[in-house]
Design a protein that fits this description.
Length: 207
Amino acid sequence: MSEGEAEQERAGYRRSAGSARGEARRLELLERVTDDLGTNGLVDFSLRRAARAAGTTHKVLLYYFDGPEDLLTQAVLRLRTRRIDRSMAAAAEDSASRTLAGRVRAMWPVLVGEEAWVLDQAIGLAMYDSARYAQLAREASKQYLPSLLSILPGEWSARRKHEVAEMILGVLRGFLVEWRTSGDGDGIEAGFAALDRALTHEEAAAD
C-alpha cells in the first residue's frame, strides 16, 4: 500500500469511527481483544498485543479507542459483563434459586470460574495504581449492583433493595478475596451459611 493510500485509509477510519458501521467495527475489535484478555490476562498487555489479537494494527485501534488504557478498561468491563450475564443465568436456572439465598448461592461457581482470575487482576491493578486504573474498581460496583437489584423481591422498597444489594456485593467481594488469597473453602462455606440465614431473614421480614 502506498503512502497516499495509507493516508486515505486512516482518514476513512476517522470519518467512520462514529458511524453505525464504525461502531460495529469498534465492537468487533473489542470482542477480539476481550477474548485475548480472558485467555492471557492483564500481564504484558499492550496495544501491539491487542492488535495481534484483533487481527489489525495498533494504529487502527487508536482510531477507535483513546489509547491502551481506554482499550484495557473497556475490555475489562466487557469481560465483567460476560461474567455477570453468566451468573444471572445461573441464578435463574438453578433449582435452589426460588429463594434469594439460593439465587445468590447459584452465582458463586460462576464468580470463581472462567476468567475470574483476570478480573481479580483488574481489581488488583486498580488498587496498585489507582491514579491510572481506579475506574476498573469503580465500574465494578456500577456493573454488579443493577443485576443484584434485579434478583431482589419486586415488592421491596428501593431503599431496602439498595441496602441488601450492597450487603450481598460486599460479602461476595470478601469471599472472592478469601478464595483468591487463602483458598479457604471451609471458611467461605461457613460465611455462606451466615449469609444464607441473613437473606432468609430479610426475605421473610415485612418491608
